[in-house]
Design a protein that fits this description.
- The complex is a heterodimer of chains A (355) and B (272).
- With 355 residues, chain A is of the alpha+beta class.
- In chain A, 24% of the residues lie in helices and 35% in strands.
- Chain A has 2 domains: 225 residues, P-loop containing nucleotide triphosphate hydrolases (Rossmann fold, 3-Layer(aba) Sandwich); 112 residues, OB fold (Dihydrolipoamide Acetyltransferase, E2P), CATH 2.40.50.140.
- Chain A has a 6-stranded mixed sheet with strand order 6-7-8-3-9-10, with helices on both faces. In chain A, strands 11-12-13-20-14 form a 5-stranded mixed barrel. In chain A, strands 15-19-16-17-18 form a 5-stranded antiparallel sheet, with no helix packed on it.
- In chain A, helix 2 crosses helix 3 and helix 3 packs across helix 4.
- The longest helix of chain A is centred in the middle third of the chain and has 17 residues.
- The two termini of chain A are 38 Å apart.
- Chain B folds into 2 domains: 46 residues, no CATH class; 206 residues, MetI-like fold.
- The chains are: A alpha+beta (355), B mainly alpha (272).
- At the A-B interface, strand 6, helix 2 and helix 4 of A face helix 7 and helix 8 of B.
């Protein structure tokens, strides 16, 4: 049972810095997600942890013992790849047994363990099939079983759901969460999908250009983004430049030309500084009165029916556009007053904190 | 109209090709069984004694032994050395890889005589020329690049992710090679082995330049049988040619049972 994983890693490819002193401590049984756009270094970080790439500088400690000098086969990890990476010439059973077979386990011991692993991922009875005969979802289950069969000290998952269709992705997400809890695993998960990160993780580490932009529990990343980059990644699609008028505790008031916005200040902001107020389309609501605090007015330019709600694009008096999700339909061209609830508005420094 | 003309042309070509082949091969085969054959459409009498004659006179048991030893050793050596080389070339990018590959494959492109003669001179100076070892060494010069050339795409298409997955789950480098790379490259190994085998058995120039009295392969022995001093019945030479053809054909048929050239591409990962 792993109780702690601590690492500090730098990776350069030539002159390009892929990971810039990425440091983290992971507790036993924790589910940590590296979240970021492609090219942010999240997969590289995983490959460094697995020992598949050598770090340029840094160290990895597992329960206090340095393991960065060990070759991958001696780290005792399990890994699930985006493209499954199942051995096409081996049966499902042999794929799952691979890690145990190379460790020299007797054939007689393999069969029951393979069966148990396949039961765990709900694929019992498919031992003799070949990966090519399975669906994508089944293949990924085999890949998970192969990783779990070695009883990994650390489970690494590199975008394991990206190749699956939407319905399967949801199903497998639940499976991964269940297995992590049931088996008491310590997992590091890499994804660019914020809903995956939010639903699975105990902790999310948002990466950009090889650096940590923000790290914390999902709710904190979701509700209290510290930079515009994180806010954008978490679905705060509406952004209004404002000037800070006052800041008291958590509450910040910013004003633009004809509107005053009250919101949550996550980062300390001095009055007079340039800031940006951000809010999610889902949190915008129709204002009960046409004027008041945090109310903006504009004209409906575009609507789309989304089933449960209506997506609306409103052009404000300032020329800016505002996206909203409203419970009732509105007509294109009509005037609309919208309220941005102060508890859902976040006011952030204008310059990006990541730089 | 054009379609029919086209079909006719294809037909004529096929018929011509087959007739030509049957004519040449048929003539040799018939002649090898002829007691005598002058100025008649078919020989007046048949016999198998030319085979026994050729076997005795040209020491075919010894020649066949040499042929098998040379072909077997060259094939084994080309695969054993060529596979790791192909693996390294497939997996590593480095500066000058392009020119290096070209240099490497030069023996495949250049006529064998151009480097065969200096190669032979050198090997004779070191007293390797004229021996079976000399023949093997000379044949490896073009056959090793050929093996690498054939193996390279087979290794390239094996996803690095498979190696990584094997390593993470506990396989050492050697185990990855044995359990993943080699089985997945097996069609390539068979193809390369087959090509090297057939090419070595068929190689004339290099073997001719390097072989001495006791190290002739079948083709070279055949050449000497035809052009060496002293009269030999043409029927016995034909018998020898038939033996040679039969061996090469048997090898091809046997090899094709294991390798289907049209289905050489092995299905690997779905992506990348």
């Amino acid at each position: 049972m792993v109780t702690s994983l601590a690492f500090r890693l730098t990776k350069r490819f030539g002159a390009k810095i892929v990971l810039d002193d990425l440091a983290l401590e992971v507790r036993g049984r924790e589910f940590v997600t590296f979240l970021g756009p492609s090219g942010c270094g999240k997969s590289t970080a995983l490959n460094l942890l697995a020992g598949l790439l050598p770090p340029t500088a840094g160290e990895i400690r597992l329960d206090g013992v340095r393991i960065d000098g060990l070759p991958p086969e001696r780290r005792g990890f399990g890994m699930v790849f985006q493209n499954y990476a199942l051995f096409p010439h081996l049966t499902v059973g042999a794929n799952v047994a691979f890690g145990l077979a190379v460790r020299g386990l007797a054939k007689a011991e393999l069969a029951p363990r393979v069966r148990r692993m396949l039961e765990l991922v709900r694929l019992a009875g498919l031992e003799d099939r070949y990966p090519g005969q399975l669906s994508g979802g089944q293949q990924q289950r085999v890949a998970i079983a192969r990783a779990l069969a070695v009883e990994p000290r650390l489970l690494l998952l590199d975008e394991p759901l990206s190749n699956l269709d939407a319905k399967l992705r949801l199903e497998m997400r639940g499976e991964i969460k269940r297995l992590h809890a049931e088996l008491g695993l310590t997992s590091i998960y890499v994804t660019h999908d914020q809903t995956e990160a939010l639903s699975l993780s105990d902790r999310i580490v948002v990466l950009r250009d090889g650096r940590v932009v923000q790290a914390g529990p999902p709710a904190e990343i979701h509700d209290r983004p510290r930079t515009l980059f994180v806010a954008d990644f978490m679905g705060y699609r509406n952004a209004f430049p404002v000037t800070v008028s006052s800041a008291e505790g958590d509450t910040v008031v910013g004003h633009a030309r004809d509107v005053t916005l009250r919101g949550l200040g996550v980062v300390a902001l001095a009055p007079g500084t340039a800031a940006v107020a951000v809010v999610r389309p889902e949190d915008v609501e129709v204002a009960p009165e046409p004027a008041g605090a945090n109310v903006v007015r504009g004209t409906v330019r575009f609507t789309e029916y989304l089933g449960r709600e209506h997506g609306v694009e409103v052009v404000l008096g300032t020329g800016q556009t505002l996206m909203a999700r409203l419970p009732r339909p509105v007509t294109v061209g009509s005037a609309l007053a919208l309220r941005l609830p102060p508890e859902r508005v976040v006011i952030l420094p204008a310059e990006d904190g990541a730089r | 109209m054009r379609g029919r003309l086209w079909r006719l042309a294809v037909w004529l070509f096929v018929v011509g090709f087959v007739l030509n082949l049957v004519g040449i091969v048929g003539h040799v085969v018939v002649s090898s069984f002829a007691r005598r054959w002058f100025a008649t459409p078919v020989p007046s009498a048949f016999t198998t004694e030319w085979y026994a004659y050729a076997w005795r006179e040209f020491q075919l048991d010894q020649v066949l032994m040499v042929t098998l030893t040379v072909a077997g050793t060259v094939t084994a050596a080309a695969l054993l050395l060529g596979f790791p080389a192909a693996y390294l070339l497939a997996r590593h990018e480095f500066r000058g890889k392009g020119p290096l590959l070209l240099l490497f494959f030069l023996p495949l492109l250049v006529p064998q005589m151009t480097y065969g003669i200096p190669l032979a001179t050198t090997l004779y100076r070191y007293r390797i020329g004229g021996t079976v070892a000399g023949v093997i060494a000379a044949n490896l010069v073009p056959m090793l690049p050929l093996a690498i050339f054939v193996l390279l795409p087979f290794v390239e298409q094996i996803s690095v992710n498979l190696e990584w997955a094997a390593r993470v789950h506990g396989a050492t480098r050697l185990q990855v090679f044995r359990r993943v790379i080699v089985p997945l490259a097996l069609p390539g190994l068979l193809t390369a082995g087959l090509l090297v085998l057939v090419n070595t058995v068929a190689n004339f120039e290099l073997t001719f330049l390097l072989s001495g009295a006791g190290s002739q392969t079948l083709v070279v022995a055949l050449y000497y049988a035809v052009f060496a001093a002293g009269m030999r019945p043409i029927y016995s030479v034909d018998a020898m040619a038939v033996i040679y053809m039969t061996i090469v054909l048997a090898m091809l048929v046997l090899a094709l049972r294991f390798v289907r050239p049209t289905q050489m591409v092995f299905r690997l990962d779905r992506r990348d």
